[in-house]
Write a structure and sequence with these properties.
single chain; 150 residues; alpha+beta; Aminopeptidase; seven-stranded mixed beta sheet
């Protein structure tokens, strides 16, 4: 698993996520299923200004996905908070740098648009992973478990 490339996925329909969907469902995760459903029904295509969806590829196959949504401000003006969403890396690509490369692409893309990145996870391994990237726990928040000041 040497050359992992991360690129912005402008059109999710260009990528085959079938094995990723199957594996994520077998693990009990709904990330990929929700990503595909939201993309298909148009409710979240990561296509508003400042938003992006990324795919980690190895030999042309998708081994990871993840995106950035901008949270709308409650009362006028642009939000300075970005939400990391739908991050999933195939089991065989974990601990090989795919997740880190994916998150680095998301964080780099987010910098011009937001001052805070937020995410939610209940997975202990993901908790540790995000903390190694500089995210800190956000106790007392019902919708966010971790945040990172950019």
């Amino acid at each position: 698993m040497t050359s992992i490339v991360v690129r912005e996925a402008k059109d999710l329909n260009e990528y085959d996520l079938s094995s990723m969907l199957q594996e994520s469902m077998e693990e009990g995760f709904r990330h990929v299923s929700r990503l595909l459903q939201d993309y298909a029904d148009g409710s979240n295509r990561f296509d508003r200004e400042g938003e992006a969806l990324f795919a980690a590829l190895h030999n042309g196959s998708v081994i990871g996905v993840g995106g950035l949504n901008l949270l709308a401000a409650e009362q006028g003006g642009p939000s300075r908070v970005g939400r990391v969403r739908r991050v999933y890396v195939l089991q065989r690509a974990r601990r090989l740098g795919a997740g880190k490369l994916l998150m680095e692409a998301i964080m780099e893309h987010a910098r011009p648009y937001v001052s805070v990145l937020a995410l939610r996870t209940e997975n202990p391994a993901a908790d540790l992973f995000y903390q190694t990237l500089g995210f800190v726990p956000a106790p007392g928040n019902e919708t966010v478990t971790h945040q990172l000041l950019l």
